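User: Can you recover a sequence for this backbone? Please restate the input before giving your answer.

Assistant: Of course. Working from this structure:
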């Protein structure tokens, strides 16, 4: 801001973007030249108009210059909360003396000498032209008003009236000039602010002028006036010192609060910026953050009145040094100085957190060399420390406003400010760390699910209209095997290595997240479906490359599913958020697993399939309770007697919305959802209830119930079977439990204890779909099974395929050799029945005998079989009698 000598006000809030000390604009420079030229012309005309006294003592001029200089150094700067800086000086007092005793030229020279000298001492070189012109205008206005008013009021008013008016005209003229400058530079200042500025200038100018007039009158006319004046000025000086101290404390408190708030606000903004998965919890200071720190450095510099303030900040031990300079340029060789390393500096090697005051005149050679390298005479240096480590260093170079340099008040101020700054910095780092941990995976340093949702969501909202994108879901396989063999630490290493491979392949700007386990998510922008497929395939190949683990090489597999916005729903205008895209990519990934593909794109039909499966799973328990799920029975007959030995219980579901459902559709979904125990219990209860009814009618017909592999993992399952048999009063031999060959042989050692417990109950155990798996004869001999069921695929092809015929014959012979009952499924014609009978097969089941029947239809079928059997027996008896 331009310096207005006398009492002035600097309107910073109303006139923002005022030319700064570091970079005055051309318009301000042109205005300054105009002001100075106009002031010189005005001074010349005024010097010609004013009467020329005979006495122009040089000593008077020097004493006035000393008075002006002292008044400039005793200025008080008041920082108003609204952003206005109010400078209170006492230049009106020496001006009043000059109006009484010295000619115009002498007062003008003294004022210029003191004012320009003060600016040079303070190194305010870019405003010298403007302030020199303002000083000339002040003296011109003072003498013009004083001379004119004395001529008008000659003999009417006391002689000091013109002096007081002239002393008031000086600061008012400089204030008016400042307002004109504000207007010319295109800045706005409200009328109310300008009025308050003039009022304050008038009041304080009047006080200073009155003090000057009273002091002069007392010194000249009163007896022993000089000692009395010295006594009064001493009291005023003490009052000034006390008032100045209070104002400084107020300014210091406001500055401390302001700096702390700025650091806290900067920390919130830095922590809120999205990251793409970099492990650094603070990520240093970016461009926008640097602006905040520049404002903080400027505020510290203004508060201390220093020529330069340097903030050397290290936001993280691994991050580079961040240097912020306010004021004079820092010599290049001193920019990256640090307290450690090859560029360690003596001024920065400070233990503790105390303020150090270094002066060139009384420092040791090492310190003196550090000051010389910075081009300064003195410096205040204070480290910023947290409880654990050094956060940075604050340097203040050369005091501007006082010749004596930095004082105790400045040392206390920078120490307290550094303490607040260190606390705010530490809180900022803690907040940034907490935010980083909230949005990043602790193992890989990549984004986690919330972080991916946030970062990808921001990118999708800001993308250009029509820009394609894709969300990829990648699963890394074989991790359980690695964990079982080598421990979880090695599987974690594989996840970290996989994340590093993906980051290297994608680059630092692509959002990449680890969701859970070996699952990763990626957002690709500006990519179409073909490019997304190529990228997915490339990333899958990168992940499946062998992983070196210790001295081993571990093979890994991966599956990729991806989804974009080009679906039927989005074409109809539906908004897709990140969660929806992740869910669709997951659906595509599961579809890829089901189909055996490595990469699969999401299609709307997939969503319908999985949505339907989800509905079936969530509605299954209700379907059991409301009777939607029923049990049908397919009879099994003995060969060759064709006697009904038993039935196989088969579940059927008639959905109110989807109609009749195929068991192959809902049973795997129910099993995957963990509801298979409820299904098994329901079928077993219904079957045992039916067997009990037959027993009550004198019929011994067994029921076969299919078991899930999950039942073989449940050690309590045999107890539940025993409880059900007891509850329904059914002998255990009338219950057959069927297990698939692949399910039993996948882990026979694990299934063996449950099978033995079931066998001990007397329950019949059967291996279903025999011949389609990978049975080991050694294990088959160890398993406590009673039956084998030949898969229907062999029985259906037996009449036309010699190979199927040979397989069926081999299974029959193998079963009999092991003492097992052999059951053939899929018997649909007489030829197959006759061939099985010729082979010695024990039991037949299939459409030739009967389709699966409901309870009522099964009873009718049994009734018909019983009637037919009675008719045949009666016919045989009649034949024998005849």
């Amino acid at each position: 801001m331009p310096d207005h000598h006398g009492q002035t006000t600097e309107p910073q809030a109303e006139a923002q973007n005022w030319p700064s000390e570091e970079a005055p604009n051309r318009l301000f420079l042109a205005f300054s030249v105009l002001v100075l030229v106009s002031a010189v012309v005005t001074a010349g005309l005024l010097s010609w108009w004013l009467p020329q006294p005979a006495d122009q003592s040089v000593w008077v001029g020097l004493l006035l210059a000393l008075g002006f200089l002292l008044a400039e150094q005793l200025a008080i700067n008041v920082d108003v909360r609204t952003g206005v800086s109010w400078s209170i000086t006492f230049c009106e007092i020496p001006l009043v003396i000059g109006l009484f005793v010295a000619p115009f030229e002498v007062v003008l020279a003294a004022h210029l000498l003191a004012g320009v000298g003060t600016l040079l001492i303070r190194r305010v070189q870019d405003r010298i032209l403007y302030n020199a012109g303002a000083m000339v205008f002040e003296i011109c206005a003072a003498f013009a008003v004083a001379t004119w008013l004395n001529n008008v009021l000659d003999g009417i008013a006391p002689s000091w009236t013109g002096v007081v008016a002239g002393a008031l005209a000086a600061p008012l003229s400089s204030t008016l000039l400042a307002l004109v400058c504000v207007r010319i530079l295109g800045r706005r200042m409200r009328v109310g602010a300008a009025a308050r500025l003039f009022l304050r200038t008038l009041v304080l100018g009047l006080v200073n002028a009155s003090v000057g007039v009273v002091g002069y009158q007392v010194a000249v006319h009163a007896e022993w006036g000089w000692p009395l004046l010295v006594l009064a000025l001493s009291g005023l000086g003490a009052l000034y010192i006390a008032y100045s101290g209070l104002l400084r404390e107020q300014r210091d408190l406001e500055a401390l609060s302001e700096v702390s708030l700025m650091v806290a606000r900067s920390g919130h903004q830095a922590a809120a910026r999205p990251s793409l998965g970099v492990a650094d919890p603070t990520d240093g200071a970016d461009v926008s953050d640097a602006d905040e720190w520049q404002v903080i450095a400027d505020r510290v510099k203004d508060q201390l009145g220093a020529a330069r303030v340097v903030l050397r900040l290290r936001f993280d031990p691994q991050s580079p040094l961040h240097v912020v300079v306010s004021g004079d340029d820092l010599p290049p060789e001193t920019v990256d100085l640090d307290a450690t390393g090859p560029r360690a500096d003596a001024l920065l090697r400070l233990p503790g957190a105390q303020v150090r005051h270094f002066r060139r005149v009384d420092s040791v050679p090492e310190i003196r060399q550090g000051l010389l390298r910075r081009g300064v005479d003195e410096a205040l240096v204070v480290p910023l420390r947290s409880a654990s480590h050094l956060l940075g260093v604050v340097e203040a170079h050369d005091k501007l406003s006082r010749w004596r340099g930095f004082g105790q008040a400045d040392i206390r101020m920078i120490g307290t400010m550094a303490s607040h700054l260190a606390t705010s910095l530490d809180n900022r780092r803690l907040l940034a760390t907490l935010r980083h941990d909230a949005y990043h995976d602790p193992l890989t340093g990549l984004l986690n699910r919330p972080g991916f949702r946030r970062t990808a969501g921001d990118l999708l909202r800001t993308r250009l209209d029509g820009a394609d994108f894709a969300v990829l879901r990648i699963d890394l396989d074989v991790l359980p095997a690695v964990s079982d063999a080598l421990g979880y630490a090695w599987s974690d290493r594989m996840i970290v290595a996989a994340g590093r491979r993906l980051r290297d392949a994608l680059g630092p700007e692509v959002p990449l997240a680890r969701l859970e386990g070996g699952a990763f998510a990626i957002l690709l922008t500006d990519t179409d479906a073909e490019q997304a497929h190529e990228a997915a395939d490339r990333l899958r190949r990168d992940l499946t490359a062998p992983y070196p683990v210790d001295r081993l090489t571990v093979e890994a597999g991966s599956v990729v599913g991806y989804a974009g916005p080009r679906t039927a729903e989005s074409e109809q205008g539906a908004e897709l958020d990140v969660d929806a895209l992740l869910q669709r990519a997951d659906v595509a990934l599961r579809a890829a697993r089901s189909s055996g593909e490595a990469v699969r794109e999401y299609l709307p039909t997939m969503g319908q399939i999985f949505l339907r499966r989800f509905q079936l799973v969530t509605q299954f328990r209700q379907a059991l309770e409301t009777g939607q799920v029923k049990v049908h029975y397919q009879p099994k007959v003995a060969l060759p007697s064709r006697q009904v030995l038993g039935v196989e219980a088969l579940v059927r579901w008639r959905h109110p919305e989807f109609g009749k459902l195929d068991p192959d559709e809902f049973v795997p979904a129910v099993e995957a959802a963990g509801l298979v125990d409820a299904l098994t219990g329901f079928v077993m209860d219904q079957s045992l209830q039916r067997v009990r009814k037959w027993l009550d009618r004198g019929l011994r017909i067994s029921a076969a119930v299919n078991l899930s592999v999950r039942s073989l993992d449940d050690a309590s399952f045999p107890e539940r079977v025993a409880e059900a048999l007891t509850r329904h009063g059914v002998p255990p031999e009338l219950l057959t439990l069927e297990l698939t060959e692949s399910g039993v042989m996948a882990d026979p050692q694990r299934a063996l204890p449950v099978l033995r417990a079931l066998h001990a109950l007397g329950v019949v155990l059967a291996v279903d779909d025999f011949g389609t798996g990978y049975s080991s004869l050694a294990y088959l001999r160890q398993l406590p099974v009673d039956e084998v069921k030949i898969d229907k695929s062999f029985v259906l092809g037996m009449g036309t395929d010699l190979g199927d015929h040979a397989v069926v014959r081999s299974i029959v012979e193998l079963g009999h050799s092991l003492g097992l009952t052999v059951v053939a499924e899929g018997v649909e014609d007489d030829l197959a029945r006759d061939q099985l009978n010729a082979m010695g097969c024990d039991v037949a089941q299939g459409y030739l005998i009967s389709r699966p029947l409901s309870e009522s239809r099964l009873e009718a079928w049994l009734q018909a079989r019983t009637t037919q059997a009675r008719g045949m027996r009666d016919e045989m008896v009649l034949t024998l009698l005849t």
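That completes the design. The chain has five domains: 8-221, 255-439, 471-602, 626-854, 855-882.
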